[in-house]
Amino acid sequence: MSGFARTASKADWVPAAPVALSDNRLWVAAATVLLLSLVQRLYFYTGFYGSDEVTYLGAAVRALSGDFSPTNYIGSIRYGFQLPIAGLMYVFGQTEVVANLWTLSCSIAEIALLILIGNRIVGLRAAALGGLLLGTLPLHVHYAGRLMADPPLALFMTATFLLFWLGQKSGRPFHFLLAGLAAGMVLWIKESTVVFLAIFLTFPVVFRCWNWRWGWMLLGFGAMVGANLLFFNAVAGDPLYAFRIAGGSVSAYSGDDARFASVIDSPLFYPQYLFAKPYHTWLLGYLALAGLLVWARSKHARAEGSDSTGFVVWWSMGMLLLFSLLPVALAPLKLITKQVNYMLMFMAPLALLGGVALAKLKGRSLSAAMVLIIVPAAVLSALEKNVVAVFTANSKATVAFAKQNSGASVYGAIGAQRAANFDALVDPQGQTVRIQAMTGSMNEVGRAGPAYVVFDSETADWGYSRGWARAQAPSCWEPSGTLDAAPELAMPYIFQFFKALAARLPGSIAEKVRGPLSAMTQQKPAYIFRVPGGGCSGASAS
Q: What is the pLDDT of residues 423-445, one digit of tens each?
C-alpha cells in the first residue's frame, strides 16, 4: 500500500519537490552540510565539564571491564548510552576521543537523517536548509563535544518520527519496525523520556487516518522493552530495576526532596530560550515560527505538500507542548523538569520548519540570511565552548599541579576532584592522581606529610560540597602563588575585538560590559597554599 493510509487522501501527502536517493544533488547537499557540521564540532569541541559525563564515563568503563553492579543513581544505569561507549573503547582504546565518538556520531547522524528523510517530507531545498540550521545550532554543536546522553537521545527520538513517516508514506512494515526499535533505544537511554510516544496517540485524530501496520512499531518497541527487562534481570536480579530507580527519582521530585529545590519546571522555560534568550538556539525559534506561518498559509490555500509539512508541525508542536506542560504531580502542581540540554529533543523538527521558511528565500535574500544565521551561530558556539573552558581551567590545572607534586597530598574543590577522576578514566595507562576533598578539619591537613591546598575562586560555589574558604586557612599555611591555568579558547580574536569595542564605551557602561566579557575569557585565580609536613599542630585560623 502506498500513500499514508487507505483512509487518507494520497494527494494530501505529496512531498514538496523531493528528489530521488539516486539524485546527486541530494548527496552533494548532505555532504556539504555534514562536512561543515563536523568541522564546527571538532573546532568547538568542549570536553570535560565535571557534571554527569564523569558518571556516564565511569559506568561505561565499568561495563568495559564486565562490571554491571547495580547502583541507586539513574545516570549510572543508562546503558543505551554507556554500552555503545564501552563497545567503542573495547575496539579503539580507552581515550577521551574514542569515548566521545558515540555522542559526536549521533549528533552528525541526526543531521543526516533530517536531510535524507526530510527531503521526502518538505523537499530537498527546505531539508538541506533545515539540516544546516541544526548543524550550526550552538546547542547542537556544543553537546556533540560533551559526554552527555542528550545527542543520542535526540537522534533516536528524531529517527522514531522520521521512520514512522516513511512507514506511512511507503506502507512498508519494515519502516514501522525500525521506528519502534528507535523508540526502544530512547527507553534504553533515558526511561522517563519515553513519554514522548504519547504524541503518537494523537496522530489518528489529527490526520484522520488509521493503519494496521502501526502494530509493527509496537512490536519493535516491545522487543526493545523486553531486551531491557532481560538485561536488568541478568545484571540486577530485577527486570524492573531501572524503572524502580527512575520512579524513585520522580517521586522524590514530586515530594519535598531538597535535591530538587532549584529544579525549573516553568512552562515558559523553552519559549524563553527560543525567543527571549537565544544564546543556545540563535534564530531557530523565529525561523520555526516563520515556517509555521508559511505552512498555515499554504494550508489555507490548499497548496500541494501542505499536509506533508503538517506532519512536521504536529511533531514539533507536540514535543514542545508535551515537554513544557506535562504534569508530574498535581498536589502541588509540578510540571516536567526542564534544562537547556533537554531542548535537543525537539530541535530537529524546529530546524525543519525553519528550513521551510528559508526555502522561500532566493538569491541575495537567501545569501544574506545564511550569513546572518551561520556567523553569529559560530560566535555563540565559541562562547559555549569558552564558558566551559574558563570554568574548568583551574580544575584541570590542579590535576596537572598534583602530577608535578606527586610526593605531596593535594586538596582541591569538587571540580578538581572530578577532573582527576575523568583524567584517570580517559588515560588509564598514564600518571593518575587523586585530589583530596576539602572537607573535615583544616588542621588535619599535612599530618601524614607535605600537602598543598588549592582554593579555586572560579568553582568555589559549585557543587553540593562547597569546601573550605581561603580566609579560614591556618596561619602556618604558606601562600605559594596562583595556578598557571590557560583556558583553550575558540575564536579568541573575536572576544578581544569585543573587549576593544567595550573599552570605547562610556565609563559606567564599559565597566558593565567588560566584566561579563572577561568572565567569558579569563578564569578567576586559584590560590595555592603549602602545608608543611606534620601539619599545623595547635595552629589557629588566621
A: 999 999 999 999 999 988 888 89
